Amino acid sequence: MTIQAGIIGDGYTSAELNRLLARHPYVQVAGVTSIENIGRKLQEVYPHLSGYSRIFCEELVKPDFFDRCDVVIFALPHGVAAPLAREALLRNTKVVDLGADFRFRQRERYEQWYQHTHPAPELLTEAVYGLPELYAERIVESRLIANPGCYPTSAILALAPALQHELIDPATIIVDSKSGASGAGRTPSFTNIFCEVNENVRAYGIASHRHTPEIEQVLSWIAGKELVVSFTPHLIPMSRGILSTTYGQLRRKVSGQEVWEIYTDFYKGKYFVTVLELGQLPQTKAVYSSNHCHIGVVVDERTGRLVAVAAIDNLVKGASGQAIQNLNLMFGLPEESGLDFPGVMP
Amino acid sequence: MTIQAGIIGDGYTSAELNRLLARHPYVQVAGVTSIENIGRKLQEVYPHLSGYSRIFCEELVKPDFFDRCDVVIFALPHGVAAPLAREALLRNTKVVDLGADFRFRQRERYEQWYQHTHPAPELLTEAVYGLPELYAERIVESRLIANPGCYPTSAILALAPALQHELIDPATIIVDSKSGASGAGRTPSFTNIFCEVNENVRAYGIASHRHTPEIEQVLSWIAGKELVVSFTPHLIPMSRGILSTTYGQLRRKVSGQEVWEIYTDFYKGKYFVTVLELGQLPQTKAVYSSNHCHIGVVVDERTGRLVAVAAIDNLVKGASGQAIQNLNLMFGLPEESGLDFPGVMP
Amino acid sequence: MTIQAGIIGDGYTSAELNRLLARHPYVQVAGVTSIENIGRKLQEVYPHLSGYSRIFCEELVKPDFFDRCDVVIFALPHGVAAPLAREALLRNTKVVDLGADFRFRQRERYEQWYQHTHPAPELLTEAVYGLPELYAERIVESRLIANPGCYPTSAILALAPALQHELIDPATIIVDSKSGASGAGRTPSFTNIFCEVNENVRAYGIASHRHTPEIEQVLSWIAGKELVVSFTPHLIPMSRGILSTTYGQLRRKVSGQEVWEIYTDFYKGKYFVTVLELGQLPQTKAVYSSNHCHIGVVVDERTGRLVAVAAIDNLVKGASGQAIQNLNLMFGLPEESGLDFPGVMP
Amino acid sequence: MTIQAGIIGDGYTSAELNRLLARHPYVQVAGVTSIENIGRKLQEVYPHLSGYSRIFCEELVKPDFFDRCDVVIFALPHGVAAPLAREALLRNTKVVDLGADFRFRQRERYEQWYQHTHPAPELLTEAVYGLPELYAERIVESRLIANPGCYPTSAILALAPALQHELIDPATIIVDSKSGASGAGRTPSFTNIFCEVNENVRAYGIASHRHTPEIEQVLSWIAGKELVVSFTPHLIPMSRGILSTTYGQLRRKVSGQEVWEIYTDFYKGKYFVTVLELGQLPQTKAVYSSNHCHIGVVVDERTGRLVAVAAIDNLVKGASGQAIQNLNLMFGLPEESGLDFPGVMP
Fold first, then answer.
1. Catalytic positions of A, please?
2. Could you report the per-residue pLDDT of C288-335, keeping only the tens digit for each?
3. Contact D51/A342, CB-based, under 8 Å?
4. Beta strand residue intervals within C160-301, DSSP E
5. A172-230 pLDDT, tens per residue?
């Protein structure tokens, strides 16, 4: 069986999908659409794909493109994917959307944070939030996956066991994240040119970043009650990787060992999540270019807080790798197909 | 008037002292002591000093060395400076210690966190914590300055106005710091070689870093009551710079504008602290190689938290520049002598 | 005496001029012109200038702007400066041009390599190539300075003594240069965003880079005969710095010591050029943010070649610092005014 | 069939062997020896291997270790491997040596450049230089492979077609290489700590680097006559990657297109070498973490020189990947087994 996957868009997450699918045993890239590079060989745009892609970037011609695909993966800015996804679904083509269009169950939340009228609100109840470690059962049965944001993936994986087990007070959650620059995509701007990022660190979007409501929505589902979080993203001088350091006030006295056991148990059988030995802390380079997530936990007895730290590669577990993990589940493939390799270190 | 300053040690903070003092209008480097580089020209060890230093590294010969100096600056690991400082003081040579030996008023706190019997506890009451923005009056009259740690400098400057004005609940403080690698000094180790730091980010020393009690001590002084903080340092792939993102639960409803005015007012007349316009956030590159500290404040109305972010260069405001600022005050010089230049950007 | 200097343009070289002139004892920035940032505070665009600049970016209004200035420094792309420079000169305002418009004595060479009709060819004979280590006497008397390109500055300083003393065969010169990304300016593009530069190295413009004829012109002047060179620039993952490794076949058997003496003698009294001790090689970080140039020489006895390596900061000695050095000479100031400080290391 | 491969050493090239072999379809890691980490889990030393290695580092116990292995790969400093390799061969275990011990056919050349008496000179005639693109036929039949150095791999691949086809004068070859820091290994030193490498570039070992005679030996074989080259390595601020820019005087007038055809023809059927389209130049990130080599060629008509540029990942094609490529050939496996994936970009 070979699944035909179409990719809409030719930015970094598209390049990453092509890199990963080039070695996927069961999935083939049926086509890649572009606006600026129509007619160009993809391996000319992305020379690392030389020898691994015969694709020429094409214009999106509907519905032909959808008909050629068993699944289309949208690697587009928010607001653009939703109407196209509707068409794809009508033609029985499954959808994985890397953008934000289908991440919120409530249309209002989307419209408030993204300042944009939702283009296909009728699909929101159907869409499944594609975090396989939490929602694999629903993903398996879905035809429309909202692939999580990169920051939310790391924050939710860091906090889910603690919230589920009521270890921490949901009113006290702080997520302090550090991201490499590829999260901002490939569009040149004053803030992502080399000289502005190199040898520099900055916080941005404090109390206003669009991943905030996404983190809150999922953590609220887990906690069984509405909660809000303080989320601060930082841009640090590296290309790939997110480290999210999360804090929560402990509701009871608990040892590091006990927390570690809860986390280890929670992620038992989850191939891509590794809870590090007590005393070890994650680093992003250990998961570089891979779909793995490393988590470390520390109980701060003096302050009564839990500190849980998660490391992922924002382009893989935080985007394209997770999309493939979802695709695997949707088509009944082994979850780790095409994703089963370690990070690149050093 | 030319003040003769001796420097004990030849690591990065010593190099930075030499770089800065090379252009100081009133201070001359009287000598630099070393263990490994005795007899070598300093500009051979640090080629950026070529043409700006005639110093040959020398062995520390007591008391001769102290007698040649009006002030000695200790750029040594903790535990080593204290007995030497005692001797220097006995010979009427003033002391600025870049290490931790004199930072704690209570000997026990030092001995507990540094696992080391204090070598000169009788000096602890006399030593002044050398953060000029808070303690200039006492520094002016002191002969023994404990230069603050790099993380504490950034954390305290970020939080001092909020605590002083009782804006935040002292029980809720979290300090999440990101530091360049020069903070770890020049001694090679498995954790500071290029390939382990580059394209990587990690947290370390969670709930156990030695700068924690130092932050707590000073914030407790400001708050007028004992407090503890959660402090998480991170190593990020850059050479210089610390960004500290600090969080505290607001005690009352307050606008960003009001907070900004409190901060601006608090730092009025403090030459090296700039409170950025509301809506702007600091970045470390803007203070690169300079003694300046940039602070940005955000009120997160949804969570009721204050987020205050401070950026410094860890080797300058976080170490050698602040030492010179203290020295200036101790000798009645204008505070900004030798330090009055902008950061290097890009 | 305070000289009023106007700056045309607000890119990185303009920012660097403002950084350096902020501490210049005899020069004041009279104004900075902009297209995109008219009306904005310069320190808002460049936060490292906070507290060091009261300038608001202004539109260039001719001839008013020129009349306010003793000298204008053009920090503009080629082709734009020349007609404006003509106007400035007519109003008795001196000119330093950071671009290429006045670098070539022969209009044809400019027009061939820059594919652009020269806008003011009548000024080419008057313009002086502003490399003070070679042409200080002419600079002193000039009112129109063509500030050298960054690569040519490093290549020429590396090779001038060897050519002057006929050590190497002029037909065998190869210049292999490595540059940080700030040389490409501040305009965002696909090639200068962080993720394309970081953890990457590439050659570009082989046999076609526009700095080639500039290097050739000046080396030909020195050699007293026309020569061509192979010049290969490389983009490496850092913000500042150029290292040029140059090769030439030796015309006679010569020792490293002899070459070193020739170089040392050649640069005697040149404040900003340091010939390193034999056995030492330059590194760009040692001149970071400074106007210094470090040179190292090696005689390869096995191949009969001279290898001379020069390190500069492309934004300082390769652009804005050298412009100020030229300005100092044009106005009879000490050559090192405002530029006399060491590099920032580490 | 599963081949048992033992790895001697636990530095970066060993880590890379483990990373690659973890996904090799026909090879299993039989054991990893260590000096400092005996008894530790390898995935504790290298957390990116978490879940991909069950190895505990062990002491090298001869001859037991060799008996367990079909092949041993030596990832050791020069001088140490040779006597151990002799023992392994005696026990019918094949050998791939990542170090320099078996790279030279003439013992004198080794002893002169490495300042070390050769420990097993009788094996030098038997050893095969393991550059599969040139010597696959001999590798297939060998039991002792000298894996090429990282710089030589890139330099030889860049120059081989031009020398073979007598395009360039063998007396005029210059190799200017730029390497990431992982080439220096994992042992901490003053030159490889982060702050010395970051935001810096330097040349080192000019006219004296030990890879010089290795490049010369192989290029001499190709040229059919003894030649010497100028080789200059540079350390640039990245972890992985080597870009070698090579220069040679053309012996006749030739077009870029003709050169490109010669190169393309030369590497026809060589899976891991890609000659880029004329006009494209290689970049190291495109081969990051992969065994591929990208080559670009330019004819500089003005100077009559050929410029050929090659990019590899020094830890893969320049070390561990090439070792596996050799191993594949030695055991009759498809050459690309375990190595058939694209680079990681961005």
1. 150
2. 999 999 999 999 999 999 999 999 999 999 999 999 999 999 999 999
3. yes
4. 174-179, 202-203, 230-235, 242-249, 273-275, 293-300
5. 999 999 999 999 889 999 999 999 999 999 999 999 999 999 999 999 999 999 999 99
Nearest chain D alpha carbon to C199: D238
Q: Within its chain, how far is the Cα of A330 from the centroid?
A: 17
Q: CA D302, CA C174: separation in Å to the nearest integer?
A: 13
Domain assignments of chain D as residue spans, ordered by start: 3-126, 151-314
Tokens of D214: 């290795």
Positions of chain C with pLDDT lower than 50, given as ranges:
none
For residues B54, B58, B60, B61, the Cα torsion angle rounded to the nearest 10 degrees is: -100
| Closest-CA residue to A130 (of A178, A73, A212, A209) | A73
pLDDT at residue A62, as a whole number: 87
Which residues does chain A have within 8 Å of residue D199's beta carbon, measured at their own beta carbons?
A: 198-199
**Beta bridge partners of residue C246, listed in sequence order:** C175, C308
**Cut 0.95: pTM above it:** yes
- The architecture in CATH of the region B151-314 reads 2-Layer Sandwich (3.30)
Q: How far is CA D94 from CA D76, D97, D127, D320, D330, in A?
A: 16, 10, 11, 16, 9
* D196 neighbourhood in chain B, CB within 8 Å: 194
* Cα gap A194→C236, rounded to integer Å: 11
Torsion of the alpha carbons at C85, C90, C96 and C102, rounded to the nearest 10: 50
Those chains having 3 or more beta-carbon pairs within 8 angstroms of chain B are: A, C, D
Q: What single letter denotes the amino acid at residue D337?
A: S
pLDDT tens string A292-337: 999 999 999 999 999 999 999 999 999 999 999 999 999 999 999 9
CB of C201 closer than 8 Å to CB of C235:
yes
Q: What percent of chain A has pLDDT over 70?
A: 100
Nearest to B102 by CA among B91, B324, B84: B84
pLDDT at B62: 87
| DSSP label at residue A147 | P
Report, as an integer, the average pLDDT of D205-226: 97
Instruction: Give residue ranges of C with CB < 8 Å to any B CB.
Output: 12, 15, 19, 22-23, 44, 46-52, 182, 186, 198-199, 239-240, 274, 276-277, 280, 282-283, 285-290, 292, 294, 340-346
Strands (E), chain A: 3-8, 27-33, 71-74, 94-97, 128-129, 144-146, 174-179, 202-203, 230-235, 242-249, 273-275, 293-300, 305-312
Catalytic residue chosen out of the listed positions D57, D69, D150, D293: D150
Which chain C residue's Cα is nearest to D202?
A: C283
Max Cα–Cα distance, chain A, nearest Å: 62
Could you please state the CATH topology (level 3) that the domain comprising A3-126 is classified under.
Answer: Rossmann fold (3.40.50)
How far is the C-alpha of B280 from the C-alpha of B260, rounded, in Å?
Answer: 11
Q: How far is residue B65's CA from residue D132's CA, in Å, rounded to a whole number?
A: 63
- Nearest residue of D to residue B346, measured between CA atoms: D199
Nearest C-alpha neighbor of C330 from the set C107, C35, C70, C77: C70
Among the listed residues D263, D321, D294, the one whose alpha carbon sits nearest the alpha carbon of residue A51: D294
Q: Which residue stretches of chain A are H helix?
A: 12-21, 42-45, 64-67, 81-90, 107-114, 132-140, 150-164, 194-197, 211-223, 256-266, 321-330
CA dihedral defined by D326, D328, D332, D334, rounded to 10 degrees? -120
Q: Which of B51, B283, B341 sits opposite C23 (nearest CB)?
A: B341
Decide: C135 and C127 in contact? Cβ < 8 Å: no
Q: Amino acid letter at C73?
A: I
Chain C: give the shortest CA distance to residue B336, in Å. 13
Helix, strand, or coil (residue D93)? coil
pLDDT attached to residue B1:
75
Collapsing DSSP states into helix, strand and coil, what is residue A30? Answer: strand
DSSP characters over C75-116: -S-TTTHHHHHHHHHHTT-EEEE-SSTTS-SSHHHHHHHHTS
